């Protein structure tokens, strides 16, 4: 099903965007144009100055300054024309040099871009001040949070968003995408200038919304931003007409509820971020996303999509709704983080999986460990089994209350729980610092699910481990996962890579009960 917002006429949008861009341009040419652009913008700035000078020269000599024309066999026009040509050649040279410098830096960090006039990547965070005048407080917060160097996605996505360009970005799990979209928001929004809701960040789960809100508040420390998490209570009872929110973080369902039932007005939203965008474009979410995107009717809105996996279908969809978007891919598209050591383990059947898990815990348990299963029923069953082993174990799934879910995450983060059993509800975006190992007790339903699950470890430059158990039933789907493993530098037996290609991408078999 195609979302309705796709029917928005492109022509209409182009016109709207043109109207919007004017004030930004006049504010700061060099800043906003960025790019191979920084040079281009500089060049055009220079051009303007020089044109001014040229005008003064001609007029000055003959009209205002009253001085006599220089004695020359060549006419003033000839000299002027030559100067202009030389200057243009110089500018072109500088522009080419800048393009070369950008290309070298992108190559160094594995950044691939497409789009017109893409802003230059950041050399370091200090450029946020020199190039974009980002403000001392936000800059200090970066240092206080221990962020010394921008990650590759931050190097490219931050300048793009600071230049008010729409973008869709794909970078590995744990590579700092959150900061890449939060930081430009905080810079661009300045402080409480408008009423209503000014920026919306959509995340597929409550846990991720809550984590993103927390990160945003940390980054905005000392600034008076009104940053809100859309809770169930707020969605049901919020008086949004009287409320001023700079940044609202929500799941699509809660936001759609507030739009429908509480008449929430999103027409002044200036920035819309779709985090884990490919998940948000899946069938279960698409209607909600549609109504949110439609409600964000501000013609000047800047939208951005972020994920570690970006299927072509989502890219195509994104292209139809975005204007002049920049595409940023870090590393290889749809690949796992290279920091994770990945292993496939044959366990025969369902019974064998439990034995293999117990055996591995007996040999060495290096907490924290996250175990993924296919459904909430299976999560409950496995929890029931491990509860009697001498392990501090907990479980998280969609049947638990909000408080229980929050407690499960908090206890795991605090080290009170060593092993957390989970469904895919926390497979995306969750940042558990120092997670050593992910175990796929149940084989993931797709390559994308695999990438996100194992991506809970090996984050922010740390190494991690991922073990995937498989049974006879999972064998036909092994190749999908093996391809991901090979692409991220892991060894896989040749027979797996020689398995036939499957047309069906999703694998969610009926499994025997875990209970013994
Ligand atoms: N420049 C940086 N330097 C050091 N650490 C950073 C930097 N930027 C972000 N981090 C840290 O890296 C970790 C992962 O970041 P983040 O959660 O944004 O990853 P992500 O790319 O969004 O991953 P996912 O695809 O799983 O959502 C976080 O703990 C974050 O604090």
Automatic annotation (TrEMBL):
GO molecular function: ATP binding; hydrolase activity; RNA binding; RNA helicase activity
GO biological process: maturation of SSU-rRNA
Biased composition (Low complexity): 30-44
EC number: 3.6.4.13
This protein's GO CC annotations: cytosol
Location of the Helicase ATP-binding domain: 158-328
SMART domains: DEXDc, HELICc
PROSITE patterns recorded: HELICASE_ATP_BIND_1, HELICASE_CTER, Q_MOTIF
Region of interest called Disordered, as start-end residue ranges on this chain: 1-53, 66-85
Sorted UniProt keywords: ATP-binding, Helicase, Hydrolase, Nucleotide-binding, RNA-binding
Short sequence motif Q motif: positions: 127-155
Domain Helicase C-terminal: start-end pairs: 339-500
DEAD-box RNA helicase Q domain span: 127-155
Catalysis: reaction(s): ATP + H2O = ADP + phosphate + H(+)
Protein family: Belongs to the DEAD box helicase family. DDX52/ROK1 subfamily.
Identification of the protein by name: RNA helicase
Organism: Stephania yunnanensis
């Amino acid at each position: 099903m195609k979302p309705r917002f796709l029917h928005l006429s492109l022509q209409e949008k182009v016109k709207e965007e043109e109207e919007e861009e004017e004030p930004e341009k006049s504010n700061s040419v060099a800043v906003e144009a960025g790019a191979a652009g920084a040079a281009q913008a500089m060049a055009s700035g220079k051009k303007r100055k020089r044109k001014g000078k040229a005008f003064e020269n001609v007029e000055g000599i003959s009209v205002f300054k009253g001085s006599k024309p220089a004695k020359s066999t060549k006419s003033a026009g000839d000299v002027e024309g030559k100067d202009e040509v030389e200057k243009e050649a110089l500018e072109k040279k500088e522009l080419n040099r800048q393009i070369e410098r950008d290309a070298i830096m992108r190559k160094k960090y594995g950044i691939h871009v497409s789009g017109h006039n893409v802003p230059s990547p950041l050399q370091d965070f200090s450029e946020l001040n020199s190039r974009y005048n980002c403000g001392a407080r936000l800059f200090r917060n970066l240092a206080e949070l221990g962020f010394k160097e921008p990650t590759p996605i931050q190097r490219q996505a931050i300048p793009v968003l600071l230049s008010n360009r729409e973008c869709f970005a794909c970078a590995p799990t744990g590579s700092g995408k959150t900061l890449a979209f939060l930081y430009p928001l905080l810079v661009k929004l300045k402080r409480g200038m408008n009423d209503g809701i000014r920026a919306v960040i959509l995340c597929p789960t409550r846990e991720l919304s809550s984590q993103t809100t927390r990160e945003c508040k940390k980054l905005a420390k000392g600034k008076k931003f009104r940053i809100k998490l859309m809770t169930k209570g707020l969605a049901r009872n919020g008086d949004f007409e009287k409320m001023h929110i700079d940044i609202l973080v929500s799941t699509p369902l809660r936001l759609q509820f507030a739009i429908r039932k509480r008449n929430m007005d999103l027409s002044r939203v200036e920035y819309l971020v779709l985090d884990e965008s490919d998940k948000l474009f899946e069938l279960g979410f698409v209607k909600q996303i549609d109504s949110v995107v439609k409600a964000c009717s501000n013609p000047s809105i800047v939208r951005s999509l972020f994920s570690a996996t970006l299927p072509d279908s989502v890219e195509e969809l994104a292209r139809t709704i975005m204007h002049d978007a920049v595409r940023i891919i870090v590393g290889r598209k749809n690949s796992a983080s290279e920091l994770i050591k990945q292993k496939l383990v044959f366990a025969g059947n369902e019974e064998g999986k439990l034995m293999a898990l117990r055996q591995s815990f007996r040999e060495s348990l290096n907490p924290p460990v996250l175990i993924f299963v296919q459904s909430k029923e299976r999560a409950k069953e496995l929890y029931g089994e491990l509860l009697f082993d001498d392990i501090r174990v907990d479980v998280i799934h969609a049947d638990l209350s909000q408080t229980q879910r929050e407690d499960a995450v908090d206890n795991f983060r605090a080290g009170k729980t060593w092993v957390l059993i989970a469904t895919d509800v926390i497979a995306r975006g969750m940042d558990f610092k120092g997670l050593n190992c992910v175990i796929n007790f149940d084989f993931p339903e797709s390559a994308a699910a695999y990438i996100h699950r194992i991506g809970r470890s090996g984050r922010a430059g740390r190494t991690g481990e991922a073990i995937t158990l498989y049974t006879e039933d999972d064998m036909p789907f092994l190749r999908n996962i093996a391809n991901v493993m090979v692409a991220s530098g892991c060894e896989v037996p040749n027979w797996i890579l020689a398995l036939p290609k499957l047309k069906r991408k999703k694998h969610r078999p009926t499994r025997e009960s875990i209970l013994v």
